[in-house]
Amino acid sequence: MDDIRNIVILTGAGISAESGLRTFRASDGLWEDHPVEEVATPEGFRRDPGLVQRFYDARRADVQAAVPNAAHLALGELDMRWKGELLIVTQNIDDLHERGGARRVLHMHGEALSAWCTSCDTRRRWTGTLRDNPPCPACGMAALRPDIVWFGEMPYRMGEIFQAIGRADLFVSIGTSGAVYPAAGFVEEARRTGAHTLELNLEPSLGSRLFDEARLGPASELVPAFVAELLQK
Ligand code: BJW
């Protein structure tokens, strides 16, 4: 870890699991109770907007009730103290990285606390519910949807992500199953452009064999230890 300057960190649902937010694909995960095609596709939203709005209203409430755990706090400290480039690319829609002190965060799958007006294409912070179809504060149309990237939609800021990976000396993946693209493909891109690749996960992910190094355990233990190593504490 001596000659590392630029770092990209990809995070998934596993980093927020110890804050009480459910992951997706575990046996007690979100997709067990809510079939993915019903709640996380544009087709599902067109078919039953009320169901999807209620699902994300509940997620928005859960996010606001959760608090950052030791893994979020460690990445917050890393962000504060790391002098080189750092980009935390999160697939998570919660704001626990930000509340853990991180600033260089990119939400590639959107944010629970944001609403997107499909009529005037504006986005704004949203902490309440959307199930009653409130009017958009900008244009007055009842056309607000969760600002979430569903299957078949383009994740946000992909150009920025690939540029950062291209400059990275270290690529770290934390608490993601490697089941969803394009995020699952970042490790191959990082290897191609010469970064050292490290996985931190409770159990091996689908892409574990693609990493130079894998460490198994809970994020609340692995991430603070990894940050201490980087900062040589
Ligand atoms: C712990 C832990 C602890 C637990 N400590 N670890 C190439 C090949 C095949 C398919 C595709 C492809 N390219 C695109 C696709 C299609 C599709 C896709 O990937 N499908 C797959 C099912 C195969 N991808 C898309 O559609 C994406 N869009 C796209 O590619 O656009 C280009 C395009 C556009 C149009 C046409 C064609 C192409 C969009 C994907 C959007 C994903 N959206 C979701 C829901 C929204 C957010 C939300 O509601 O919260 O995002 S799905 C869901 O999965 C969510 C997550 O961000 C994402 C990833 O899940 P994650 O975070 O990995 O969670 P889990 O549950 O899977 O894993 C948890 C992990 O944590 C596990 O590994 C545990 O071990 C670990 N863990 N406790 C450490 N304490």
Spell out the blueprint of helices and strands:
Blueprint: E1 7-11, H1 14-17, H2 30-33, H3 36-39, H4 42-47, H5 49-65, H6 70-81, E2 86-90, H7 96-99, E3 105-107, E4 110-117, E5 123-125, E6 144-148, H8 158-167, E7 170-174, H9 186-192, E8 196-201, E9 213-216, H10 219-231
Parallel strand pairs: 1-2, 1-7, 2-3, 7-8, 8-9
Antiparallel strand pairs: 4-5, 4-6
Bound molecules: ligand BJW.
Q: Would you mind describing this structure in some detail?
A:
By secondary structure, this protein is α/β, with parallel strands linked by helices. Helix content is 35%, strand content 19%. The protein is built from 10 helices and 9 strands. Strands 3-2-1-7-8-9 form a 6-stranded parallel beta sheet, with helices on both faces. It has a 3-stranded antiparallel beta sheet with strand order 5-4-6. Helix 6 packs parallel to helix 10 (219-231). The longest helix is centred in the first third of the chain and has 17 residues, at 49-65. The model has no long low-confidence stretch (mean pLDDT 97). Residues 12-14, 17-18, 23-26, 29, 40, 91, 93, 109, 148-155, 175-177, 179-182, 201-203, 205, 218-219 line the site of ligand BJW.
Give a short overview.
This protein is of the alpha/beta class and 233 residues long. It has ten helices and nine strands.
- In percent, how helical is the residue content? 25-40%
- How would a textbook summarize the main sheet? 6 strands, parallel
Could you report the average pLDDT, rounded to the nearest whole number?
97
The small molecules bound here are: ligand BJW
Find the count of extended strands (DSSP E, 2+ residues). Answer: 9
Report the principal-axis shape: globular
What share of residues are in beta strands? 15-25%
How many distinct helices?
10
Q: What order do the SSEs take from the amino end to the carboxyl end, as H and E?
A: EHHHHHHEHEEEEHEHEEH
Coarse structural class: alpha/beta
